[in-house]
Amino acid sequence: MKTLTTSCILVLFLICLSDAKETFHSFSIGLASPINSSAPTSTNPDTPNEKALKLGWDAGWTFFGKPFLKYDNAIAGLSFGGKISFSRWVRDSTLTGINFLGTQLISRYYLPMSNKQINIFVQGGAGFFIGEHGFKDPDTLNVGLPPSVVQVTKGKWYGGYSLAAGFNWDIFEIVPSITIVGTKITSSWFAINAAVTF
Fold this sequence. Notes:
By secondary structure, this protein is mostly beta strands. It contains one helix and ten strands; from the N terminus they run αββββββββββ. The strands form two sheets. The protein has an eight-stranded antiparallel β-barrel. It has a two-stranded antiparallel sheet with strand order 2-3. Strand 8 (about 155-170) and strand 9 form a beta hairpin. The radius of gyration is 19 Å and the shape is elongated. The chain starts with a helix and ends with a strand.
């Protein structure tokens, strides 16, 4: 319950930050490919039977303000904001879900270009992620319990960061990104998201 309460407070804080002049919102969804995600699905060290995660998906709401638009120089492309994301994968051996809810502070910079139809940008962010398991954690299915018993695993807080580069045309964006989360053994993924910005 404490984790849920803290998450709600962070989300409300980011929403308050988003209510500013010259603020833009971006809603995105795309495919997320885990990097180095194989984990043992057997407790026997002689036969670990390692399995990887399937291709997953990543969705998010990004908001950012452009406080320097009044300047007619390179600093006009600098913006600051936040991102709330949800990412999910399924382990191919037991259909165990691996989820991360992320809240990050971000900085985005639009490169100066002569062609104003297409804008190229780079983006970096850092913050906290909540998840029950990391990519490399051993299989989380408890075979000692019947299927009718619901298993509840307490979420854990992890620090993490992301790096992205992309472009937008009018209201549409394509944003490839890499996200790294500091689980017991680092979890990282590459995502390509399509977004609508307004």
